[in-house]
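Case study B.
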Amino acid sequence: MIAALRVDKPGLFATLQDLGRPNHRRSGVPVGGAMDRFALMAANRLVGNDFGATCVEVLVGGSGLSAKTDCLIAITGGDLDPRVNGNEVPGWTGLRLAAGDRLQFGTRRTGARAYLAVAGGLAGDRWLGSRSTNLLVGRGGIAGRALHKDDALALAGPPRNAVVGLHLPVAARPTYPSMGLAELAAVPGPQISLLTAESRHLLFRQEFGVHPESDRMGFRLVGETLDVRGPELVSFGLTYGCVQVPASGQPILLMADVQTTGGYPVVAGVVRADLPAAAQLLPGDRLTFRQSDVESGVRRWSALMAGLEAVR
Amino acid sequence: VRIHPLGDAALVVELGDRVDIRLNERARDLADRLRRVTGVEDAVASYCGVTVYYEPEQVSYSAIHHLVLALSPRLRARAKGGRLHEIPVVYGGAELEETAAQLGLEVAALVKMHSDKMYNVFLIGFLPGQPYLGPLPARLQLPRAATPRARVPAGSVAIAGRQTIVYPWASPSGWHVLGHTSVLLFHPNRHPPALLRAGDRVRFVPT
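Model:
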């Protein structure tokens, strides 16, 4: 296969991701996939791919790639100051790269994770129906690891007819954190009643910080301690966006690589429309939970998807 | 039956709150039935409930809610096609003696009690391929260790509360390690990759 892109600088942490492997939870295999699923789908849409085609997920920190052939790309997600041959290029827009062009991600302007789609989608190791990188098992993506210098990224298939310049306007994108602060709509969870009344109030009122020990599995949150009462629970199935409260009283927001099951009380679940905002946080950033409900979450996600479908 | 949302695209059904094989079998029956519903992406049974992952654009929370209420009186508590696995274990290590002492048992008696019992696989989860087995004989029940160990090797067989587990991966552990197995509980090239499935039974064979 002919490489479409080559990794010049891996940066801090760049991986291949798609929408994950949702059908192997019963084997204990996490779904995984893109942290900002909307941004991945949007990037694919802008280059004429299926929503779930494989993209590069770039965490802020200076990743650089060069084009080996002419190709159509789109960059979505956080604004990491992407440049082609040193010149600023617009995000959320289909762009033409010529063979030899160098794409460089710079410092953070907003957000934390950018998505790079290439028309045709990226190839990579497929495991259990997905090319998303699972670091623990060492499968998916490029040998189950983060990208290295000189990795060659090939296309999964031929590009479809797609025009350069497709664009997703700001109004059709998720609300991203502003000044490092995200407001996340969350539905009260199964064990909300194990929180004292005061702690329930705190959960939806206080600002939490994102702890340095945060990763794709979960963000440790720092705030005034939540008081959780009651017996030890038995494990049950979890999902991206669950807010767990361990005995320490410092909650954990479970992210894309969430473990399949857990036994800590789950006091809230962030709705899908606000997971992109969570995915754009870094340690040191802050978030608040706004109490919401299932219906409004579904409405907001439908509106986002309608906006994507309208791109043509 | 209690039903709670988990965000806007998953929900949790609680059939009870005990570690009980009958409840677990009913939960698995419910999960099997829900998995066939259009718009349900997956349904995973746990000890005494089911987490349902669904596409709200295809099937609503309230539709699943009503379906669960209609199905729950008809759930059957019967093991369906569970397989029996014999897992060889080398019992030993510093923690084995410690644990026996804490339980007030001779090491040989602890090994015999742990390996005489046939365990049910209640669920696979947390880490890829990790089984939660039980119930553990009442005489062997201990709370988790106050200070978790930073790392136990893959294959460690451990107990805590009413459960016994095998770690498929090197992992931090607050459980009491009794021994080690060389059986691979998870292999990425196997289909399915986990050796054990919920509903299977396991006996540990001292070697």
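The mean pLDDT of chain A is 96. The remaining cases will be described in the next quarterly update.
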